[in-house]
Amino acid sequence: MKYVSTRGRAPVLSFEEAMLTGLARDGGLYVPQSIPQMPKAEIAALAGLSYEEVAFRVMRPFMDAQMTDTRLGEMIERAYGGFEHAARAPLTQLGPNHFLAELFHGPTLAFKDFAMQLIGQLFQDAMKRRGERITIVGATSGDTGSAAIEAFRGLDNVECFILFPQGRVSEVQRRQMTTPDEANVHALALDGDFDDCQAAVKAMFNDFDFRDRVGLTAVNSINWARVLAQVVYFFTSAVALGAPHRPVSFTVPTGNFGDIFAGYIARSMGLPIERLVVATNRNDILHRTLQSGRHEKQGVSSTISPSMDIEVSSNFERALFMAYDRDGAAISRLMEELSRDGGFPVSQGALEALREIYGSGRASEEETGATIRAIHAETGETLCPHSAVGAKVAREHLGATPMITLATAHPAKFPDAVAAATGARPPLPKRMADLYDRPERLTAIANDLGAIESLIEERIAK
Ligand SMILES: *Cc1c(COP(=O)(O)O)cnc(C)c1O
């Protein structure tokens, strides 16, 4: 499979090259040149298979010919072997025709582990074969960083730097980033918000000298390999509820649009997904865009679902690229308009294409808390605030088709918000019960590109 940039002016790359490159050199994101199709009979044959077997069948067609089946199979086994639940992404039921896909049984308790654990394996494999070293730089609103540090700690030939917004991640998220003591992982607390972190990472990628000097790679959700790994649980969940013979819909708590875009890929492969519903918190730029047809920044505010406190939703560019019939020049112009004017109108044709697939909704802070409380009372299930945003919006979209809400994090990752809603602090799973006792290690840094780049160069020279 070959990969092209959403802005149409970067080299066409293989799967491995696209994975190692992260952000394209024209500022765009890599997408597959075409979407492999999975016929109905092949989808039906996924019923009853293990998560790992489904992962193999779904991802294989997107990879390069030189990837052997044995190597891929082994990497998938290692990636998901550390999950606490044998089903990896088990389904539970929240109400009539409303299901929850629990994506929080990985080592850092959020769905990011599905992609990051696999990417760790894929990167190490590629670096070993190429005899190269790389520097991974990521921005995080909390969960990506902890998942990345967990996946890359101690790996050979990889240095991993994570920028997180100082004071804006939960204590559990911070401790998951600052307590691993391996020398190749670095938690950097930036004086700014998540968009500042993301902008700093983008700027490092656009500094081509620096980028080449340190062998820079991104593992943010702009990295295609991450999106691909997330396609798998759309298949396992839908098949468990009767796909391909019965369609399903998904509601996805959304920030950077990576998770829901993976659902779009599953749908494009042939999985019968009726609706993909974007659930946003008060930072509702995507909901407003789908409602009004104008994509417009208004500023980010902090919420109890911090992993969704995002305004520049990077993967939305991939959705736009598809909605604009893969017109890279048009996407380039929109992205220029966004950074110059803070917004752009979506063309009528593209808006219709988006609305045909994506629904949307938002949850205020009060509604999020009320949903945690209500679902706890009705079912005994404790949702994290992100999953609660999803459940609230999903309930507004229930119909004849089964609805699956993605539970993106474990409630114990956000104990204060959950305790405020239910009165009870959700305990951490046993294997990380000592998280609050482990020593922390982090570096505070100004929101200044030069300072960040120098720090990275100093650290990798050691
Ligand atoms: C990252 C994250 C999200 C948002 O996912 P995107 O792929 O960025 O849209 C939602 N919930 C949690 C818990 C997350 O960690």
UniProtKB/TrEMBL annotation:
Pfam family membership, one? Thr_synth_N
Highest taxon listed in the record's lineage: Bacteria
InterPro entries associated with the record? Ser/Thr_deHydtase_PyrdxlP-BS (IPR000634), Thr_synth_N (IPR029144), Thr_synth_N_sf (IPR037158), Thr_synthase-like (IPR004450), Threonine_Synthase (IPR051166), TrpB-like_PALP (IPR001926), TrpB-like_PALP_sf (IPR036052)
User: Which residue range or ranges hold the Threonine synthase N-terminal domain?
Assistant: 2-80
UniProt keyword annotations, A-Z: Amino-acid biosynthesis, Lyase, Pyridoxal phosphate, Threonine biosynthesis
Q: Which GO terms describe its biological process?
A: threonine biosynthetic process
Residues found modified as N6-(pyridoxal phosphate)lysine? 112
- What cofactor is this protein dependent on? pyridoxal 5'-phosphate
What EC class does the entry list? lyase
Q: Does the entry feature the keyword Methyltransferase, yes or no? A: no
Cite the GO molecular-function annotations of the record. pyridoxal phosphate binding; threonine synthase activity
Q: Which residues form the Tryptophan synthase beta chain-like PALP domain?
A: 94-330
Protein name according to UniProt: Threonine synthase
Pathway assignment: Amino-acid biosynthesis; L-threonine biosynthesis; L-threonine from L-aspartate: step 5/5
Its EC number(s): 4.2.3.1
Corresponding gene? Answer: thrC
**What family classification does the UniProt entry report for this protein?**
Belongs to the threonine synthase family.
Name the reaction it catalyses: O-phospho-L-homoserine + H2O = L-threonine + phosphate
